[in-house]
Amino acid sequence: MTTVTGETTEAVETTETAGTTEAAEATEAAEIAETAPYGNGVLGQPLDSREDPQLLRGEATYVADINLPGTAHMAILGSPVAHAKILSIDTKAAEQLPGVLKVATAADFTDVMPLPCIWIPGGVESHFPPHPYGLPGARPVLTGDAVRHVGDPIAVVVAETPRQAAAALAAIEVSYEPLPVVTLADEALKEGAPQLHEAVPGNLNAYWTCGDKDRTDAAIAVAEVTVELDLVNQRTINSPIEPRGAVGDYNAATGEYTLYASTQGPHNHRFLLSALVLGIPFNKLRVIAPTVGGSFGTKGYLYPDMALVLLLSKALGRPVKWVDTRTGLMNSTVQGRDHRQHVVLAGTRDGRITAVRATSYANLGAYPSTIGPGVATALMGRSISGMYDIDAAFCEVYAAFTNTVSLGAQRGSGRAEAAFLMERLVDRYASEIGMDPAAVRRKNLVPKEKFPYDNGLGWTYDSGNYQLNFDRAMELSDYAGMPARKAEARARGKRLGVGIASYVAICGVGPSTRMSKEGMLGGTWESANIRVHPTGEVTVTVGSASTGQSHGTVFAQVAADELGIDPAQVQVYEGDTLKAPYGQGTYGSRSYSMAAPAVALTARKLKAKLVKAGAVFLGVPEDKVVYEGGKVHEDGNPENTKTFAELAMAMWYGWGLPPEIEPALDETTHFDPPDFNYPFGTHVAVVEIDELTGETEVVAYTAVDDAGNIGNPKVVLGQIEGSIMHGLGQALMEHAVYDENGLLESSDLTRYALPRAFDAPFFTLGKTTTPSPHNPLGAKGAGEIATVPPAAAVVNAVVDALSDLGVQHIDMPVTPEKVWRRLRGEAQ
């Protein structure tokens, strides 16, 4: 069951409360966190997602559903060991098996460049495997010298059927010379640790810092109170419902390649693959993203399979298809989190935080992923101060290579790790000074009059009313009533604990110039095209690419709102580099605050053109033309009017237009914002612990988030609930476990736990609204923000429940065994 409530702060200053509704007793529309329509009334409406019916009926086309005539099937041989020299590879037996068309190794692709890394730690010296163009390299499409993690691709087989290809893999004989293994970032940096790459001395990719070290150290040295924690933000495995897949199709007649892939960024992958891996003309590669079954950050990366299906399609003269398995995904697709941290907070006896310092060892895995180093440094380090007005802050990150799967983004990446360390420190500090954790937080929130607020670590928060948001969370969670609830739980043999976590999440990745300073080797703007057809129907084409965010619904609302037409008249297209304008893709909660503003600005260009043309059609001066409600009319004479459909046909014909007005309605905008946007919020978790078993149940969960102006609250509600469950998964059960030999023990869903429906708590969801000044819609990111605080909220709640036993911290995941041992006085 979900309780939902809405609260809006207009331009940050005033407050309007919308009330509370029980979802079980309300209509479907009332189940949405109430959002007043804004703009022209279409935005803010909880329209049903037009993508859902085909998904629910099983009619959507995923990569696995693409079966081109003559398709052959590829299988990839991954290393069974974590670190070893490759002495020999014998493929003769595999080549003789029925149905086998080709067996290939690294020796077959010597003219293929390695995959590049395009987000390096900005402003510091860094070390990467080499790339021929002098760029940071990542990994080869197939490794021929050594393997560096279990699953490292060594060879590929192409056969008539997937079964035949898989059988041939088993016939390939590889001889290895084992090498020592290291799986932890801090261990990889010690003298004498196994060396992964010749070009990376001591396995150190970069030592990166932000903030003021001297000021922070001085504040800590003179502080009345200091608290310290050693934290493990454990490695987790992204688990979208659809594993990755790729289909390559080479046309020998035209020399053109087509790649169908489960990708978040088809335009980026087109450029990187053509220019930096395959060395082919950009205009000879087309990338298509069909329906993508979730990503959580995993599908924005270059992977070897993308290049391999294209190369092998050309070699064989027929399409080549590859679809991963769940175990394959867990051993090859980028993984998340994985920081080992020592953190310090300093403050006064009366609850004022004066400094925070963090030292983090970030595990990049065996190879740098496409953007992994930036995720591990800037997104985490610059975010550690959260919602708090702290005078001195400093973060240092040691980014290291180990014998594990490459690190990448995971929903809330960097921001979640930062929130965890800060919110655990705040609770530890509150305990040390004997002050209520809520009171400490409220005392240190950035006051609304300080916005825009420089957090001293590199982010300038755009807008916010943190006190309003925080107080709303305390009210909705009935925080004041927790002592009574604790007593009632103890009477039932349960320990009840409450945990708070507040956060700020940098979102809306852009602007391009700023991202270049953070080490991004490319642009981060977004684009949209709108074409009005002679029938009055509208096509919106965006450079973004959905992985389940209902772009087709929400972008149609944006265009319809601006043009004053019915959203049913608008069709949205994306995910095909041949048809869509160039764009950066979907990641970092940027779709509604980057692509949607591009749509809105394009619609405004069309309206401006229609006003000019309307003067001709209406026979009046341009300053007498009014555009409203999908029509133009003469100011003061509404009878002299042209409808949107009439205008579309008139512009299609182009009759009577002066030379300065081109016929037709077709406009494009490239949007690059002046800065990021910064959604924020406060979450409260309530847990009950069974004293006999140690089982922890989240019995209630309150989330009050602020994502600025919301285009479709029904869509955002689903994202908020899904994000919370993602965070609860890390807190309670998810853990990518590597043994001392580098073998991934949690390599399938029988050994890697994910939250299920019965793990979902009772949600009470609220909102505040502080529009961002950095885009024309006032939007902030929403898709991943609610993943940022849950882990901290839950662990804080568990520690609260166990505090009378002297428990000050417990590492994630908070399994029943860990809690059971702490209940019996054992150290974790």
TrEMBL record:
Source superkingdom: Bacteria
Signal peptide: none
Record-annotated Aldehyde oxidase/xanthine dehydrogenase a/b hammerhead domain positions: 57-180
One Pfam family from the record: Ald_Xan_dh_C
Region (Disordered): 1-23
Keywords, in A-Z order: Molybdenum, Oxidoreductase
Keyword Aminoacyl-tRNA synthetase carried by entry: no
Keyword Metal-binding part of the UniProt annotation: no
PANTHER family in the cross-refs: ALDEHYDE OXIDASE 1-RELATED, XANTHINE DEHYDROGENASE
Protein name stated in the entry: Xanthine dehydrogenase family protein molybdopterin-binding subunit
